[in-house]
């Protein structure tokens, strides 16, 4: 019996879609989900507001948060680049190892509702 289905314009091997969760935060977790029958997975989104908040916390918890203003800029820029690089690396590695759709909750170009990556 075939479980293939069409969802959001994608042909999926099964109708089981693993939503954004701890399982989809690592390549191993994604592989386990696919091995268990997932037809697609949704990874957590990266939100710029969250990255800024985390960077601010780092700066404000330092001993001299305003002593070097250029340091604040560096930390914020580094935090943003690191978060996006980590996110994209997860997606690239997972796509190389699985043949199912991988989607981000915010979808292409940050639109809500998600979409395939």
Question: Can you tell me about this structure?
Answer:
The strands form two sheets. The chain has a four-stranded mixed sheet, covered by helices on one side. Strands 1-2 form a two-stranded antiparallel sheet. It has 117 residues and is an alpha/beta fold. Helix content is 44%, strand content 15%. The protein has one domain. The protein has helices at residues 27-35, 48-60, 69-97; strands at residues 5-7, 10-12, 17-18, 40-43, 101-104, 115-116. The protein has three helices and six strands.
What's this model, at a glance?
With 117 residues, the chain is of the alpha/beta class. The protein is 44% helix and 15% strand.
Low-confidence stretches: 108-115
For the termini, the CA-CA separation is 28 Å
Structural class: alpha/beta
The biggest sheet, with number of strands, parallel, antiparallel or mixed sense and barrel status, is: 4 strands, mixed
So what's the overall shape? Answer: elongated
Tally of structural domains:
1
Q: Percent helix among the residues?
A: 40-55%
Q: Give the amount of beta strand, in percent.
A: 15-25%
What strand line-up does the widest sheet have? 3-4-5-6
Number of helices: 3
List SSEs in N-to-C order: EEEHEHHEE
Please compute the radius of gyration using only Cα atoms: 18 Å
Indicate the mean pLDDT.
80
Total beta-strand segments: 6
């Amino acid at each position: 019996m075939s479980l293939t289905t069409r969802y959001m314009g994608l042909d999926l091997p099964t109708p089981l879609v693993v939503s954004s969760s701890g399982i989809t935060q690592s390549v191993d977790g994604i592989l386990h989900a696919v091995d268990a029958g997932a037809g697609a997975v949704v990874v957590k989104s990266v939100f710029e507001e969250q990255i800024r908040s985390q960077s601010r916390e780092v700066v404000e918890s330092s001993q001299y948060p305003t002593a070097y203003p250029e340091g604040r800029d560096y930390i914020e820029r580094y935090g943003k680049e690191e978060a996006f690089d980590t996110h994209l690396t997860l997606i690239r590695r997972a796509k190389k190892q699985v043949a199912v759709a991988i989607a981000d909750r915010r979808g292409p170009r940050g639109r809500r509702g998600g979409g395939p990556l």
